[in-house]
Write a structure and sequence with these properties.
With 238 residues, the protein is of the alpha/beta class. The chain has one domain: Rossmann fold. 39% of the residues lie in helices and 19% in strands. It contains 7 helices and 8 strands, in the order H-E-H-E-E-H-H-E-E-E-H-H-E-H-E. The strands form 2 sheets. The chain has a 6-stranded mixed sheet with strand order 3-2-1-4-7-8, sandwiched between helices. Helix 5 packs across helix 6 and helix 6 crosses helix 7. It is elongated.
């Protein structure tokens, strides 16, 4: 009888240890159309968001993509599957985690600025990435968008077009609808994803322009039911 109980308890323990945990996903979209952004993705700061020093065994995924005048850009993905301390080798795990950190650091250290891309197609790549994050099962995702949000897509909305700039100034609700209409496929009200816009203006003019886009994006994401916040420095986050 004792043997049966022991086997039952062991089975339950192993079953609990192999249950899928929530995967922590961090995605970075970096606007590479400007050479003088004051804040860019810094490897150690991004890696600290995973909190791997606290939990060596958690499953994590890092994603990186650039934003330029191209709507379709390559995505870099590095993944660290979850493991359990009971069934795994700690030394091997530390080696794998070290390589993961090295891969992420290498991806973020590259000089991403591309001189010929002077126009920012921001919204379409952002929507595409949100849909990709929502498709990852059992995950908790944060998307860091390093950009001034100055949309300049000649096909449907550009702040360099007088009529678009005036519409934003006089009828923001109409612009919100225009952006939301181009968010097909996004699951509204998703609580497992949040967007964090990271940008620090150089001067009063840039600050005013960003404030207007911050107001627009706040309204857009309210309509989509997805969390968004705006910060000047990633180091200010806990």
């Amino acid at each position: 009888m004792k043997t049966c109980i022991y086997i039952l308890l062991l089975g339950l323990t192993l079953s609990a240890c192999t249950t899928d945990k929530t995967q922590s996903v961090i995605s970075v979209l970096e606007d590479v159309t400007e050479a003088d952004f004051l804040v860019t993705p810094e490897p150690n700061t991004i890696l600290s968001q995973f909190k791997l020093d606290r939990d060596l065994w958690q499953g994590v995924q890092f994603r990186y993509g650039s934003i330029s005048s191209l709507v379709h850009n390559e995505r870099i993905v590095f993944e660290l599957p979850s493991k359990t301390a009971l069934l795994s080798n700690e030394i091997q795990r530390k080696t794998v985690v070290k390589q993961f950190k090295a891969d992420v650091s290498e991806a973020l250290k590259k000089d991403s600025y591309i001189a010929e891309h002077r126009y920012s197609a921001i919204w379409t790549p952002l929507v595409t990435e949100i849909k990709s994050l929502q498709a990852i099962p059992n995950s908790d995702a944060t998307l860091y968008l390093f950009s001034d949000l100055q949309e300049n897509n000649p096909d449907w909305f550009s702040l360099l077009k007088y009529e678009d700039a005036i519409e934003l100034e006089r009828n923001m609700e109409s612009v919100v609808k225009r952006f939301v209409s181009r968010a097909d496929g996004i699951r509204k009200g998703n609580k497992n994803i949040k967007v964090v816009v990271v940008y620090q203006p150089h001067n009063i003019k840039e600050d005013a322009a960003f404030s207007k886009m911050k107001q627009l994006y706040s309204a857009i994401f309210k309509a989509l039911g997805i969390s968004i916040e705006f910060i000047a420095n990633l180091n200010t986050r806990p």
